[in-house]
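OP here, attaching both records as promised.
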Amino acid sequence: MKTEEKVNKLYVIGITLVATLGGFLFGFDSGVINGTVKGLEIAFDAQNIGSGFNVASMLLGCAVGAFFAGKLADLYGRRSMLIMASILFIISAWGSGISTTSVEFIVYRILGGLGVGAASVMAPAYISEIAPAKYRGALATTQQIAIIAGLFFSFLSNYKLADISGSALNILWMDYETWRWMFWIELIPAVIFFFALLFIPESPRYLVAKNHKEKALQVMSKLYGSLTGERKVHEIDASLATDRHKPRFSDLYDKTLGRIKPIVWVGVGLAAFQQFVGINVVFYYGAVLWQAVGFDESDALLINVISGALSIAGVLLSLVLVDKIGRKPILMIGSIGMSVTLALVVYAFSTGSLEVSLASGQETLKLSDNMGMLALIAANAYVMLFNFSWGPVMWVMLGEMFPNQIRGLGLAIAGISQWGANFIVTLTFPMLLGSMGLAFAYSLYTIGAILSVYFVYKFVYETKGLELEEIDKIWKK
């Protein structure tokens, strides 16, 4: 019979908050590009596919970072990978702002992407490995709160900086354009993240896997007390006892069935569907999107701030419910809700007509007042639904669903799938916008949301309330 856990809640929460600074930088680094697109186009003379690659270049780094971070974390530790990510954030924030050519900018953004990719998979994995089962969903959900907070503060700082100078294109301080300062603001949280990581412990499950049981026991005892800590170390050790070899990608293959383990495909599906609903089009191109339907730059940036606030509200609701009603019901609610709201956005955009803007000389989609309001409300409802469901819950599940022996490897495959899908959606949006229009682009994301309903119903199992060492059993049904 299990003894009652005596969780050192303040210590667990403190560690979680430090780890989620990686999520904050993930969000900030992803969202800061939103207000700089026009500045990049003018500074580097990039249009359409060039502009898309300037924005999407970071995602190549994200895919590589997520892939290798999972593997390297099994060799060198979760905390070590988070420290490396913090260093990459610092280099990228400085370099992106100081760049003078598109190639130079892309190099720094890819470096930042390596940090984002590593933090995106390591932060939820680390939190899952130190959190008690009954709070794990809520604590892992704070990763998404941090991501959205990072997005929100990047939108807010972009808005305020552009407001001070008059435009992202204008000179702000020290003879540098405002868009460059938008990147440099990120240096503040990046430096804080680096130093904070020096004060948190390594994951106890990693320590047991590396046969450092005494160190693992010290960490577990501080988290749960000596008796519970010792029991948990024995449980983790037992889950690895039958096969304690160095993790390798062949572990993802089921030799008995002669195929890749089903849990790997579920992880890939969760990661890819999170992106195929088109959420990062709103995050990365929100300002461009709303200017394309007639809002001026200031209003478009303000809409981003409002969307960020609604996103935080959605994640907070998920935090309250994820350990009560479970992961699968929240994913299903989100998939159905996003299907409906995206369909409404498509309908609103399909009623518009193209007109040439006198101010910019570019074509914009003109909507009636009613259709413009419908698009605005539906799009923000969609963002809130995403951040209630797929935004946090996908990361919660990826962090907890893989067995100890293959957690890093599973995260590597899921991570590269998530960022690869993100790259495809982000790179193609400017081309779709220029050639097929907003309605067509959003119809593709609507199809992605509809397909995700079936995926959740058919393939996703509930993991609420289970210890990490127990979860593997449900995927073997």
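Record two, same layout:
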Amino acid sequence: MDLGLAGKVAMVAAASSGLGLGVARALAAEGAHVSLCARGADRLAMAHGEIDALGDGKVRSEVVDMNDPAAIRAWVDNTRHDFGAIDIVVSHTGGVRQGSVSEFGVDDYREALDTALIPHVALVLAAKPHLERAGWGRVLMITSESVRQPMPHNVLSGVARLGVLGFARNLVHGFGDRGVTVNVLAPGYHDTPALRGPSGADVAAAAAEVPLRSVGDPDDFGALAAFLASRQASFVTGALLLVDGGNTRAVP
């Protein structure tokens, strides 16, 4: 299936490994031009080389701290300058500390919002004028299954990432009839460096919790993101899509 992404310009945050890299790989394989960012220069350089070998599109990469709104705006401006357009924005952040309600105070919640909510807002607001002028665009926000099912051991994530969902659904009206869709992807356990850890034992433990008895593949996650960025997904907006192997089974 031709997703109609050849020549489109995609920005993918936190793309040096894990889910972000999976999304960048999928978009590049479809012929999109991809602008990557991450905090670590070494891993970002490796990701750049990997993405550059996948398709006919161009690749650029930039070291960006997603907790710095000025750096995010510069990344958006640089991408627009180098590639001439911005069509697809994939916002993604690092994780927050795990723990229960009783373990955290007000400052911890504020830090979680700064880490797991505000970067999404900053990136989309910086890119929004470019998407609107183009009259076509896709915004994808990567959060966590915790937006659908509270997790007692991961309360900060649940609180901060719920704000991402609220922001996304308000953006649907904010973009109006400009041809821009906004969707939220809520992944569960995936085989990423963050989950794998030094020994890889966490992957087996996580898989035991999932009905499919496995964790997700970042490339499969990327394929879903690429579909949502495609022309075929033009009538899908305001959606929350769980990508967790059936781990979340709450009834609305």
